[in-house]
Specification:
The protein contains twelve helices and two strands; from the N terminus they run H-H-H-E-E-H-H-H-H-H-H-H-H-H. The chain is mainly α.
């Protein structure tokens, strides 16, 4: 059976969440068509879907690429997740036994992955917890939204070299589920907000650089020579040159050439 555009999109999102596709990775239409044994039209449809979801971007001349979120976009993504996930927990009613079983089964896989050496599987499961939580709380629409936001924050963590500890993330998830199990919705919401804040604070986001730094350094006054004195000397030389130009004056020579 031929693969569909949604299936290709899902595979790419999975690869992002597993940290197998880095920010800025090129996604060639021809290569993907060969890989999935399908037409470039289907590949293009899949990539167009992902572009609308904010996972990939396209350049008319260079092709398709996985996004490289800016610092501002990183802040917005975490803020969006904070609002969505805390609101999701706040609006949810008491969690049922089936949902709890699903969450606990997911946590069991997470714990095993944290101890294992497969970084991709670990990364995917830690991110997918948030999707699983939305599904367990009965909101499939937000589950789809969180899948995209989780993929984007995974790219952000890769781009800004997150120092967040996987074991700590897993433990945070355990505490959130425990709060939900005992009916402490407010506690679970507070724990989720704290968890997202902790993940965000682990990013190595640099402060904005001075765009004029290089030019500022180049044009700074020389050591031991006040800037005003330099300007006065320059002005004096310019006046002397205008009054009586020297035959050896290079500025006169350049002026003659020009």
């Amino acid at each position: 059976m031929a693969i569909s555009a949604p299936e290709i999109s899902a595979r790419i999102v999975e690869a992002v969440m597993a940290q197998k596709l880095a920010p800025g990775s090129r996604l060639g239409e021809q290569q993907l068509a060969m890989l999935f044994d399908c037409s470039r039209t289907i590949v293009r449809e899949a990539l167009t879907r992902l572009a609308a979801r904010g996972i990939v971007t396209v350049s008319a001349r260079r092709g398709w690429f996985v996004i490289e979120p800016s610092q501002a976009e990183a802040r917005e993504a975490f803020e969006a997740r904070r609002v969505i996930e805390s609101g999701l927990i706040r609006s949810a009613g008491p969690i049922d036994k089936e949902a709890l079983r699903a969450l606990k089964a997911h946590l069991k896989r997470e714990k095993a992955a944290v101890k294992d050496s497969d970084i991709g599987n670990r990364s995917y499961l830690l991110g997918d917890f948030h999707v699983c939580l939305a599904e367990s709380l009965g909101n499939s629409l937000l589950a789809d939204t969180l899948r995209d936001f989780t993929a984007r924050t995974t790219l952000i963590a890769m781009l800004y070299q997150s120092s967040h500890d996987a074991a700590q993330s897993c433990e945070d998830h355990v505490r959130i589920v425990a709060a939900l199990e005992r009916g402490d919705t407010a506690g679970a919401e507070a724990l989720m907000t704290e968890h997202i804040g902790t993940v965000q604070s682990a990013l190595r986001v640099q402060h904005p650089t001075d765009p004029l730094a290089q030019l500022r350094d180049a044009l700074a006054p020389l050591q031991g020579t006040p800037a005003k004195a330099q300007l006065l000397r320059t002005g004096a030389r310019a006046k002397a040159s205008d009054a009586a130009p020297s035959p050896d004056d290079s500025s006169t020579y350049l002026g003659a050439l020009l």
